[in-house]
Amino acid sequence: MMALDKFGRSSNTEGVKRRRLDRCCEPSLPINEDGDYDFSNRKLSNVKLPTKKTDTSTKGYVDNIMIPINRKVVKIEQKLGFITNNIESFHGRFKSFKEEVKIQQRKKNELFQSHENQLKKLTGLFEDVLEINGKIALLDTEMKSQLQNLKVSLQTDFTTYVGNNYSSLSDFVSENLAQLDLKFQSLEQKFNEIFPNVVNLETSPTTDPI
C-alpha cells in the first residue's frame, strides 16, 4: 500500500530520489574530450566561493586574486624594464670602455716603441761620446806632451838667445822694459792728438764735490 502525505503526494521517497537523481544526471551540457562538462558560452550564477581545488570559482573571486597579482606583474615588468635599460646602458659604457682601453693600449705601445727608439739613439750617442772622450784623452795626452816639449824647447831657445845677446838676464829685462815704456809714450802721444780735450786723470788735481 502506498502512503500519502498531507498534500496527497506519495511518500515513496526512494522513487522520488531516483527520479531526481536520474533528472540530475541527464546530460544537459555537452561533454568535452577530457570528460568534463563543456561550459563554453555558458553563464554560471549563484556560485559560491570555492573551498576545494575542484570547485568552480566566480569571475569576481578570480579578479580579486588576479588583480593584485597583475599589479605586481606590472611593477615587476617595470623593474625589469628599468633593469634592462640599465644593463643596456652598462653594456654601452662597457663597450666604450673596452674601445678606450684598446686606444690607450695602442698609444702606450706607440709611446713605448718611441721611448725604445730614443733609448737606442741615446745609447748610440753615449757610445759615440765615450769614443770621443777616449780620443780627446789621447789628444790631451799628446798635446800635453807636445806642450812640455815646446816649453823645454822655448826655455832652451830663450836661454841660448839671452846668453848670446846679453850679459845677464837683468839686462834683457831692462831693455824690454825700456822698449815698452817708449811704446807707451808713443801711444799716449797719439791719444792726446786724437782727444786733445781729455784731461789726464793721473796729473789733474782732484777736487772735492760740492
Oligomeric state of shown chains: single chain
Q: List SSEs in N-to-C order.
A: HHH
From the spread of the alpha carbons, the general shape counts as: rod-shaped
Q: Got a strand count?
A: 0
Number of domains: 3
User: What count of helical segments does DSSP give?
Assistant: 3
- Give the termini distance in whole angstroms: 177 Å
Computed Rg? 66 Å
Strand proportion, as a percent range, falls in under 5%
User: How confident overall, as mean pLDDT?
Assistant: 75
Q: Which range best describes the helical content: under 10%, 10-25%, 25-40%, 40-55%, 55-70% or over 70%?
A: 55-70%
Classify the secondary structure makeup into a structural class: mainly alpha
The biggest beta sheet, please? none
Low-confidence stretches: 21-25, 199-210
